[in-house]
Design a protein that fits this description.
Length: about 350
């Protein structure tokens, strides 16, 4: 091969390898970014990534085309990677105006989103060029994108415009909500706190319902293990279920005397029920994961075949991936099929498992 052909060959290779790369801004719960990186590494092999917010947000390059990467991630939903968006434009600018101009010019070219329902999701680092809050940046962008006649919405958008304004670089992407794993900005699902709400734990069940599509309204009799003070119990009662709540601790006074509630003030190791008495079992004990799994599997005789279980698993270890695998294996052994496993936004140092008994 002469020199010119070698050069052309290299350019060709270069083009091909660019096709086989895509960049994403990825988010996990605080402190869990290394595990989200590990999940991607297991899926894609080696990984190049840079932290944008320590322990939480990173930008990574995957050695596949964007389409392939999307397909892989969506087919095997990760546990710790809460949210991601594809990077279509990277901007290094000296001034905010230059950066904004670049974002505007790029998005105005994405004519396929014209006239559709769009959510603009902005996040930034503390030392970003943009010094005001993210909402002000969103308003500024909305104003600049007027020619596209977009309908702005927070819920159920057709497209999401994502902008992460980091210290030196701004990352921009336009994607469908399902490709981002969540249609909330950074996967941070917000629920309105209600008057008289018993505990924030209720948000975990609300988020699990949304994340996994659990049809809580369709169940009749639930067993709630580690129920006090009663956030989950109140949620299930509101959905019209009959609830048996087990906890040595006190339930919230607002639940006293509820006609659909039976409270058993005992340790869950000391209770027994009829076979197949329940069609839903929930457990949020914030306790040793192995002990929790042992206790729950010991009570599974009371769950009907086809019944559902929602369980939080505390990650009291430096090796959460191995622990999750071990706990899932314990449940699978006990005829529970894992339908979903996810560290929800409202989970702290834990994950939520959604399982069905077969
Ligand atoms: C995080 S709180 C549960 C919050 C509850 N899901 C809510 O929505 O309000 C954990 C509860 O598990 C209970 N618990 C811990 N070990 C238990 C056991 N062995 N048997 C029954 N309850 C237990 C504790 O008493 C505590 O009330």
């Amino acid at each position: 091969m002469d020199e010119l052909n070698v050069m052309q060959g290299l350019e060709e290779e270069d083009r091909k390898s660019q096709d086989l790369h895509c960049k994403w801004v990825c988010t996990a719960n605080h402190g869990f970014a290394p595990y989200a990186q590990e999940e991607l590494r297991r899926m894609f092999g080696s990984l190049k990534s840079t932290m944008l917010i320590p322990g939480e947000v990173f930008v990574t390059t995957l050695g596949r085309s964007e389409e392939e990467a999307k397909g892989l991630i969506m087919s095997k939903p990760p546990i710790f990677l809460r949210h991601l968006f594809p990077v279509h434009l990277e901007i290094t600018a000296e001034t905010v105006d230059e950066a904004l101009h670049a974002v505007e010019a790029y998005i105005l070219k994405r004519e396929e989103i014209s006239g559709s329902r769009v959510s603009i999701q902005i996040r930034k680092t503390e030392n970003s060029l943009w010094t005001e809050n993210p909402a002000a940046l969103r308003d500024e962008l909305q104003h600049r994108l007027t020619p596209l006649q977009l309908e702005y919405t927070v819920q159920a958008p057709e497209w999401i415009i994502s902008l992460f304004a980091a210290d030196g670089l701004w990352y921009v992407g336009v994607s469908r909500p399902e490709e981002n794993l969540s249609d909330w900005n950074g996967g941070a699902v917000r629920f309105q706190r209600e008057e008289g709400q018993i505990s924030r734990a209720k948000f975990k069940l609300l988020e699990a319902e949304k994340q996994f599509g659990i049809p809580f309204d369709s169940f009749r009799k639930a067993l709630d293990i580690g129920a006090a003070p009663g956030g989950w119990t109140s949620f299930l009662l509101e959905r019209g279920l009959q609830v048996t709540a087990v906890d040595p601790a006190k339930m919230h006074p607002s639940l006293h005397g509820h006609k659909n509630l039976r409270v058993i003030h005992k340790n869950a190791a000391d209770v027994s029920f009829k076979e197949h008495e329940f069609d839903l079992l929930v457990c949020d004990m914030s306790w040793s994961p192995k002990q929790t799994a042992k206790m729950v599997t010991g009570l599974l005789y009371s769950l009907q075949a086809g019944g559902t279980a929602v369980i939080t698993v505390k990650l009291l270890t430096k090796k959460p991936m191995a622990l999750v695998k071990e706990i899932m294996a314990v449940f699978e052994e006990a005829r529970m099929q894992v339908q979903g496993a996810k560290q929800l936004f409202h989970n702290r140092d834990e994950i939520t498992l959604y399982m069905i008994k077969y």
